[in-house]
Design goal:
11 strands; about 220 residues; 9-stranded mixed sheet; Nucleoside Triphosphate Pyrophosphohydrolase; 5 helices
């Protein structure tokens, strides 16, 4: 494996929060942030977790995504990380991300090494989603659940971390024009909460975790 891959993984370990560290009291980011929509402070959020799974390919790191089945009632056909709602009192958020990954694409937790997590994200549907980063060696076999997953694909990590590939777009939602980030790549459309979480990871990856001294710019002060 190239030294570049190992350097990226080392950088990620240094900027991510610990896997089992305390949860944030409230998500830092969320749907509607680009429109300055205030999220209700007293809103009861459902805890969930997702996994940004990095694959060590010879050409570099890729991120594994799923495209949700078209018949699902919620977010049908959308691109997402493997993940879902936490079973409260029965598992940690990290265990939730690993369990959901195994259920959705058939990858056992024993094959995945968790590197850490980054700030949680509040969705308009009422979830507080904690994203984790994991890494897996190539040579694994996928077994997607056809009831949930229409497609599994990979996108280069460096493409997703490049802010020049983060497109600011808009569409009408519940009578309002809402802005969001999208990262289209080779016919796949990564957008919404998934793109929002990737955007937050890219800023942290480039400039350090929250609380570290960073070079202020128009990008980080927005």
């Amino acid at each position: 494996m190239s030294q570049g891959v190992e350097a990226i993984l080392s950088r990620l370990r240094s900027v991510l929060d610990p896997v089992d560290g305390p949860a944030h009291a409230r998500p830092i980011h969320g749907d509607g942030d680009l429109d300055d929509i205030q999220r209700p402070l007293g809103r009861k959020l459902k805890p969930a977790a997702v996994l940004a799974l990095l694959v060590k390919r010879e050409t570099g790191l890729t991120v594994l995504f799923t495209r949700r089945a078209d018949h699902l009632q919620a977010h049908a056909g959308q691109v997402s990380f493997p993940g879902g709602r936490q079973m409260a009192g029965r598992e940690t958020l990290a265990e939730c991300a690993l369990r959901e990954t195994e259920e959705e694409v058939g990858l056992p937790p024993s094959a995945i090494t968790l590197l850490g997590r980054w700030e949680s994200y509040e969705t308009v549907t009422g979830y507080a989603v904690t994203p984790f980063v994991g890494v897996i060696e190539p040579g694994f076999a996928l077994n997607p659940d056809p009831g949930e997953v229409a497609e599994v694909f990979e996108t280069p990590f460096d493409f997703l971390m490049d802010k020049d590939n983060h497109k600011l777009e808009a569409r009408e939602f519940q009578g309002m024009l809402r802005r969001y980030y999208a990262m289209p790549h080779k016919g796949r459309y990564i957008w919404g909460a998934t793109a929002g979480m990737l955007r937050a990871l890219s800023i942290r990856y480039a400039q350090g975790r929250p609380g570290e001294p960073v070079r202020r710019s128009k990008e980080t002060s927005r």
